[in-house]
Automatic annotation (TrEMBL):
GO terms for molecular function: diguanylate cyclase activity. Keywords: Membrane, Transmembrane, Transmembrane helix. The chain crosses the membrane at residues 18-37, 43-62, 71-87, 114-133, 145-168. Gene3D superfamilies: 3.30.70.270. One of its GO terms (cellular component) is plasma membrane. This is Diguanylate cyclase. Pfam families: GGDEF. It comes from Dehalobacter restrictus.
Length: 348
């Protein structure tokens, strides 16, 4: 699998691996201090190049310039040759740091997927075989080391890829599930989450005794608005009402697009009178909205949770109250119960 490089996601990984790159230089420097006489010109050339390379990569990784950050992609083809050049300057150092190829191959496999794994592995083989021609006693051991190294790196990356695919699948599943539960126009939840929110409110009522209310809002004459103004304008009307609802609801309340031009709110910990006041405030704010060239109105049906009744039964009560508001002239709030409906009168 070829993974599109995600700089934001992999930048922390780049910074951690930068410590490994500098660590190799520190080890090489420690060896230089211990065995000054055994190092030749090629080692110092390699050390100087690796030092400049590390500085270049460090600047790119920590730079806020996106163009500089993209240059760290070059490390896919430069890491292994640069550090092979460093280690080839001394046989003992090459033997001691041979394990570092596993980290280079694994890192680029994680960062670039199978493509990075293949490139890093191929470069490792080529670099070590070129070195082994200069150092004849390494030629046989390189084959054994390289075979073991590649098996280990491939196994590591396969596990990493499987885990990545599982994480991607889980993320896509959660994303699809979340999108399916939301209205694409307003971004509000749809009816799929309504039952869960209702059960949450019922559980809270049973535990604390706090009441809650269900309110259904319906835009008056919405079909006429769509016919006269068009569906684009109708969508804007829906968005305005959705914004007014969000503005007047608390973070703990549940709002959803119930269907068409209908919206539903569950006001947690809210009695009938308070719910009617909130609904009436929403009605007034929507009617006063300056976006429309003429006032548009909304009607609302309110239902205080009826103990022992299901979600469907409570919604039926709120729906009957809403129907009563429509038949009474629209642009009003009416509450309902199992015993009938009642027009809401706001006290002065």
């Amino acid at each position: 699998m070829v993974r599109k490089f995600d700089l934001i996601k992999y930048k922390p990984l780049e910074r951690k691996f930068l410590l490994f790159r500098w660590g190799l230089l520190v080890v090489a420097l420690a060896e230089l201090i211990r065995f000054q006489g055994s190092f030749t010109g090629p080692f110092f050339v390699g050390f100087f190049i690796a030092l400049l390379y590390n500085l270049f990569v460090s600047v790119c990784i920590f730079s806020k310039d996106t163009r500089a950050e993209k240059l760290i992609l070059l490390s896919l083809v430069l890491d292994i040759p640069v550090y092979t050049l460093l280690m080839a300057g001394n046989v003992e150092l090459l033997n001691m740091l041979f394990f570092s190829y596993f980290f280079f191959i694994s890192f680029h496999g994680m960062r670039h997927g199978i493509l990075g794994l293949i490139i890093a592995a191929a470069e490792s083989v080529a670099s070590l075989f070129i070195t082994s021609f200069k150092i004849s006693d390494l030629f046989v051991s390189v084959n054994i080391y390289m075979f073991s190294l590649l098996l280990l790196a491939f196994g590591f990356i396969i596990v990493f890829e499987v885990i990545s695919l599982l994480n991607i699948s889980q993320y896509q599943f959660r994303k699809a599930k979340n999108q399916a539960a939301r209205d694409p126009l307003t971004g509000l939840p749809n009816r799929l989450l309504l039952e869960k929110s209702f059960q949450k409110a019922v559980s809270n009522y049973q535990r604390t005794g706090q009441p809650f209310s269900i309110v259904i809002f319906d835009i008056d004459n919405f079909k006429k608005i769509n016919d006269q103004k068009g569906h684009v304008f109708g969508d804007k009307v829906l968005l305005v009402l959705a914004r007014v609802l969000k503005t007047n609801a608390r973070a703990t309340d549940f709002i959803c697009r119930y269907g068409g031009e209908e919206f539903l709110i569950i006001f947690y910990g809210c009695g009938l009178q308070d719910a009617c006041l909130k609904a009436d405030k929403i009605r007034e704010e929507f009617a006063l909205n300056s976006y429309f060239d003429k006032p548009l109105t909304v009607s609302a049906g309110v239902c205080l949770y009826q103990k022992g009744c299901s979600l469907t039964e409570n919604i039926e009560i709120a729906d009957k109250a809403l129907y009563a508001a429509k038949t009474a002239g629209k642009n009003r709030v009416i509450s309902g119960s199992r015993f009938g409906v009642d027009l809401f009168h706001k006290e002065a």
